[in-house]
């Protein structure tokens, strides 16, 4: 493509983005450097980050709030939806605030996760996912949202994603920074 046409295209895209921005209400930044001591969780940035039927709030984060040892998330999964199958080498503690579901837990000792254990989780239950064990949290209820408070160690989280339970651990794909941390890292350099 001629450079002129390329630039014109880029200008049109910028113009369009400008127009859209002027019509849309200003979105709350997803990575606010909010240093206030007490925050209203209900007003913090919430997004699906492209995961169907899922909502995530970084209640207290490494990149957004400067934590070094732990991070706290509030996540909601709608009926019938689930997290991806994944593993990480940090510790993870869940407290189920609402709803019920299933923790699917694979093995880190076989070459691949294998047939997962199915562990019921329910309102007011708490559980810890063993380090490096592939797992998936499922809202198996037909009506009610599943809401969990999650605490992880050693943020920001480095997540390895599996397509299914028979995918070898070595084939799981590292997604780093994970979707909710992407906005908080420095913007990539302009390639022009
Ligand atoms: C969970 O705890 C709350 C507060 O104590 C209580 O109102 C609710 O009934 C409990 N839920 C279940 C399923 O036990």
UniProtKB/TrEMBL annotation:
Disulfide bonds join 31-184. GO terms for biological process: auxin-activated signaling pathway; cytokinesis by cell plate formation; positive regulation of cell division; positive regulation of cell size; positive regulation of DNA endoreduplication; unidimensional cell growth. Zn(2+) binds at residues 86, 88, 92, 135. It is found in: Endoplasmic reticulum lumen. GO terms for cellular component: endoplasmic reticulum lumen. Its main location: endoplasmic reticulum. Homodimer. This is Uncharacterized protein.
């Amino acid at each position: 493509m001629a450079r002129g046409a390329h630039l014109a295209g880029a200008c049109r895209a910028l113009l369009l983005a400008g127009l859209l921005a002027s019509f849309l209400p200003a979105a709350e930044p997803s990575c606010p450097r909010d240093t206030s001591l007490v925050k209203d969780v209900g007003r913090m940035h919430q997004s699906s980050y492209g995961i169907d039927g899922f909502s995530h709030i970084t209640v207290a984060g490494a990149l957004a709030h400067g934590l070094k040892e732990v991070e706290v998330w509030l996540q909601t999964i709608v009926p019938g939806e689930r997290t991806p199958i994944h593993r990480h080498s940090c510790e993870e503690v869940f407290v189920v605030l609402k709803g019920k579901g299933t923790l699917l837990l694979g093995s880190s000792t076989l070459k691949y996760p294998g047939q997962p254990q199915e562990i019921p989780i329910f309102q007011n239950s708490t559980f810890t996912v063993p380090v490096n064990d592939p797992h998936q949290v499922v809202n198996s209820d037909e009506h009610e949202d599943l809401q969990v408070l999650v605490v992880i160690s050693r943020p920001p989280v480095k997540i390895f994603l599996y397509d299914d339970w028979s995918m070898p651990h070595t084939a799981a794909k590292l997604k780093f920074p994970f979707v909710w941390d992407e906005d908080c890292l420095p913007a990539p350099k302009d390639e022009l």
